[in-house]
Every structure is written in structure tokens, then in C-alpha cells.
Amino acid sequence: MIKGLTTVAQVASEEAFTQLADLFRALGFEQGKGWIDATGKGESFLAPLGNLEFVTGRMPSVPSLLVEVTQLDTVHAAVEAWLIAHRRTEDVAASLSVSTLTHWNSRLFTVNLTPELTLGFWESENPLHNRPIAVEGDLSAAGKRFAIVVARWNAVITDRLLQGSLDALHRSGCPRQDIEIIRVPGAWEIPSAARTLAESKRFAAIITLGVLLRGETAHYEAIYNEVARGIGQSQQETGVPHAFGVLTCETLEQALDRAGLKAGNKGFEAAIAAIEMASIQQKLAEVKA
Ligand code: DLZ
User: Fold this and answer.
1) CA atoms within 13 A on the CB side of 147
2) Does 224 sit in the ligand 1 pocket, CB within 6 Å?
3) DSSP secondary-structure letter at 260?
4) Which residue has the least CA distance to atom 7 on ligand 1?
5) Which residues, in sequence order, are CB contacts of 106 under 8 Å at separation 6+?
6) Cβ(150)–Cβ(210) under 8 Å?
7) How confident is the model at residue 169 (pLDDT cuts 50, 70, 90)?
8) Would you place residue 133 in the very low, low, confident or very high pLDDT band (cuts 50, 70, 90)?
9) Residue identifier of the C-alpha nearest atom 9 of ligand 1
10) pTM of the complete model
11) Measured between alpha carbons, how far is 159 from 247 in angstroms, rounded to an integer?
């Protein structure tokens, strides 16, 4: 139900009003709708997050209006440049504080922009502070069923990809009995098998594994495009996540590198993506319900 917070600040003169609006635009605030009527006008500036804080006991010695930013030093320089442009030199130092460390692991400076308006700008030392809330999948595969469609062509590689996928699923809590492995002749056959499995609605996600070697594959581009399109289409039309673990490589050596030798194991990575997407689908379904 709650959508946001609005705070209203009065500005004495038209000139200060225009200058402030220019500063806030220059600082990167998103412009809101604003308003104008016979009694006055308002400029509106939006921030991605709002925070209303009630305090009991000792009030922190900060302005009541605080703007959380990234790159505090850049903001400080922008505010200082604005003050230099709009104030007498001797007033600039009096209006703008230096950035100091706070006792809550942040840095903060204050600026007196107009006689009525003092702002605090601050940056948390923790880069993850106030990260926008988002629906994120977790990496638990327990209680979900997964299907792996794996091509037999280039089995020396695809077997390693399969091992990588099984490793990721097991380590994430999915026992062997909750995993179905379907072997198909080549990459070309992956989409139709994946689609049949997805349509059965028995699986939280499908993991597709194959290897196309450019040097050895006639009509390589055509086959690759069709395999990618078919897997994507199956995912979109069934709503069941499909992880794409079909390697496209120039050489066998390159493929081996991506199957656990030097460049990770793409089967493992595909399974992790499948687990995460299965969790996201579950959470989105819960949000809808
Ligand atoms: C025919 C063929 C060729 C030339 N190359 C590959 C490849 O590099 N990787 C792969 O997974 N499959 C290949 N195939 C087999 C086709 O995908 C398909 O299985 C056959 O054409 C039978 O339909």
C-alpha cells in the first residue's frame, strides 16, 4: 500500500528556487512532476529509496533531510562548485562542511543551501547498503526436480558437462532421484526433448547440454541458430526455465577448456542458473498468489 515519502521545503525567493532546481538536476536527481498554480509552484525531485526514521533518545547531530549517495567526493565537488557560483567567496566555507566519518560507518557532509534548507549528503562505507530490494533466486535445489538433456555427439565433452551439472545439483541439495537425465543423439535433437519434458510440468527447470564444433559441423551456424531458438522458444512457451549449456567452440581443445579444464565447467554453470531460475519462478508464483 505504501508508495513513497514526500518532504516539502519552502524556498524564499524565485531566484533561489531556480538555482536549487538546477543543482538538484545537476546532481542527478530524477525530475518529478512538479506543479504550478496561482499561489506558487513546486519542483519535484525523486530518489529511488525513501526512509523515514523515528529517533528516541539523543538525536544524531545531522540535518533532518539526508541524501544518501554514491561517490560522495564527486557530490561534494558539485555542491561546492554550485556554492562558488551562487555565493560570496567568504560564505562558501561557512555553508559547506568537509566530509567526515560518522559513528555509523559512513561519511557525511552538510551544506546550507538556502537560509531555510540545510542538507546532509552521506555515503555508506558498506557498498551493499540500501541495495534496492529485488526478488532474487536462492541456490537451493532441495525439493525440486530437474531434467538434464545431454547430447551424445562429442560425448567426451558432454559427459564432463553432465558431471558438472550433477555436481552443482547435488551440492545444492538435489538428490539423484530428483534428477532425470535424457540422452539425445546430437545438439539438433535437444530442443524437442527439452520441450516434451517442459510440457510434462514435472520439472522445476531443464538443463540443456551439448557441444557444437565449428570445424566439424556442416551448416554450423544454421544448426546453432535452430538449437538456440528451439530451446529459447520452449522456455518462453512453457514457462519452465531452460538453462543453456550448449557450447559453441572452434576446436575440441577450446571445448575441453570449458568443460572443466581451464575455463570452468559450463555444465556446472548452467545447472546453477537453472537452480536460481527455478527459485525465482517459485517466488514470483508466490508473489502472484
Ligand atoms: C551432424 C552433426 C555434426 C556435423 N556436428 C555436430 C556437433 O558438432 N555437435 C552435435 O551435438 N551434433 C552434431 N551433429 C549431429 C546433429 O546434432 C544431429 O544429431 C544429427 O544431424 C541427426 O539429426
Assistant:
1) 23
2) no
3) T
4) 212
5) 122, 123, 124, 125
6) yes
7) very high
8) low
9) 212
10) 0.62
11) 13
Name which residue sits closest to atom 5 of ligand 1, judged by CA: 217
User: Percent of the chain at pLDDT above 70?
Assistant: 96
Q: What is the mean pLDDT of residues 101-118?
A: 90
Q: Is 188 in the pocket of ligand 1 (CB under 6 A)?
A: yes
How is residue 93 annotated by DSSP? H
Distance 277 CA to ligand 1 centre (A): 28
Q: How many Å lie between the centroid of ligand 1 and the Cα of residue 185?
A: 7
DSSP string, 217-247: -TTHHHHHHHHHHHHHHHHHHH---EEEEEE
Residue that the C-alpha cell 568537509 belongs to: 98
Distances (CA, A) of 59 to 7, 52, 77, 287: 19, 14, 28, 38
CA distance 225 to 191: 11
Q: Which domains does the chain have, with CATH numbers?
A: 14-124 (3.10.180.10), 146-288 (3.40.50.960)
| Distance of CA 233 from the midpoint of ligand 1 (Å) | 20
Among residues 116, 101, 14, 106, the alpha carbon closest in space to that of 67 is found at 106
Q: Is 121 helix (H, G, I), strand (E, B) or coil?
A: strand
219 has catalytic annotation: yes
pLDDT digit string, tens, across residues 216-242: 776 788 889 999 999 999 999 999 999
Q: Is 216 in the pocket of ligand 1 (CB under 6 A)?
A: yes
Nearest CA to ligand 1 atom 23: 188
Beta bridge partners of 101: 107
Count of beta carbons in the 10 Å neighbourhood of residue 150: 22
Please identify, by atom number, the ligand 1 atom nearest to the C-alpha of residue 218. 4
Cα 120 to ligand 1 centroid, rounded to whole Å = 63
